[in-house]
Amino acid sequence: EQRQCQVLAGIPKIMQVMFEATKPELKRGSIVNSRELSGPLSESKIAADLTALQQKYPNTDIGSYPFSIDGKYGVSIVIRSEDNKALDEAYSDLQALFHKHGA
């Protein structure tokens, strides 16, 4: 199968016109939804629980993103999945995990 590659201009107005012309040819994938929860926890404190959560919901992707705002540290956890039921269940478990650790 031969694949065609499109290159879009870097100038926003020109790129937008090129994208609109190309859009009908683009293949669509599955819709991936996400949920995010942030709190004043260290990533290392919840790492084992996050590993267990990922194992419990293998059809989700769980990302951990540490942050610092005004000298206060925390973590944002993002769960992504095509399976909305698994996403909701994993998010509910994530909320319980945050509560367990005092966030």
Explain what this protein looks like in three dimensions.
With 103 residues, this protein is α+β, with helices and mostly antiparallel strands. The protein is 41% helix and 25% strand. It is built from 3 helices and 3 strands; from the N terminus they run αβαββα. The protein has helices at 12-22, 43-56, 84-100, and strands spanning 33-39, 61-69, 72-81. A 3-stranded antiparallel beta sheet has the order 1-3-2, with helices on one face. It is elongated. The termini are far apart.
Primary descriptors:
single chain; 103 residues; alpha+beta; 3-stranded antiparallel β-sheet; 3 helices; elongated
Strand content: 25-35%
Distance separating the two termini: 51 Å
| Total strands | 3
The total of helices stands at 3
Please give the radius of gyration in angstroms: 19 Å
* Biggest beta-sheet profile: 3 strands, antiparallel
Strand order of the largest sheet: 1-3-2
* Average pLDDT: 92
- Please mark out the parts with pLDDT under 50 across 5 or more consecutive residues, or reply none: none
**Helicity level, as a percent range?**
40-55%
Q: Which structural class best describes the helix and strand composition? A: alpha+beta
In sequence order, what are the helices and strands, one letter per element? HEHEEH
How would you sum up the global shape?
elongated
Short description:
The protein has 103 residues and is α+β, with helices and mostly antiparallel strands. The protein has helices at residues 12-22, 43-56, 84-100, and strands at 33-39, 61-69, 72-81.
